[in-house]
Amino acid sequence: MSTRPRTFTKTEAEFPSNLHILPLDVTDEGSIQQAANQVQQQHGGGLDLLINCAGILHPSGRGETSLRDVSSQGLLTTFSTNAIGPLLVAKYFSPLLQKGTGAFGQHASNKQTHTAVMANISAKVGSTTDNGLGGWYSYRMSKCALNMATKNLSIELGRGRNKVICVSLHPGTVDTDLSRPYHKNVPGDKLFSTERSVQYLMDIVNGLTMQHTGKFFTWEGKEMPF
């Protein structure tokens, strides 16, 4: 799902039976609800994996370096995309996740222990214990809020029979527009292609159990304190 579905028209044509692109704007609750309804109508049953990966560093494209750079609009826009949006996606898609087959993650003793996995793409800078430099107010605070949402979701969606594993994941520094202004400060072996980062994260997702729900993991599979 994307705000720019036409961008993926060629890719969708290459995999017509496996890939369906739907419009979704995480800053528009109506758009989220409509996308969830479309998934329900087109695919019937449940959903096995949801990855909340929409994100913005700051409307200006650069993180704030001091209080002088902080603005209410910058905070609101960043929070809307990075924290509020993923929570609303969880609101409308969780019923589908609770009908999943448990295809991702690991189950104990050949018994299905969960129906689906929800992974929220967070960042190390959203950890209060990994902040030694300050700055980046909007981004840090929004990712910290997303981590709290992950924890809350893990509790609510961990009740009852149809449990959903909920985790936050730090993908590393990925070669995207979001991180491009800071690439010169990243060692070559730590600047990941999207494909490499996705592989790291999927390795984590495929190894998850209900014991991991509500936790925060780096791309290396190491648990990170919130």
Automatic annotation (TrEMBL):
Superkingdom classification of source: Eukaryota
GO cellular component: cytoplasm
InterPro entries for this protein: Fungal_SecMetab_SDRs, NAD(P)-bd_dom_sf, SDR_fam
GO molecular function, one term: oxidoreductase activity
Protein known as: Uncharacterized protein LOC109485286 isoform X1
Organism: Branchiostoma belcheri (Amphioxus)
Lineage start: Eukaryota, Metazoa, Chordata, Cephalochordata, Leptocardii
Gene name of the encoded protein: LOC109485286
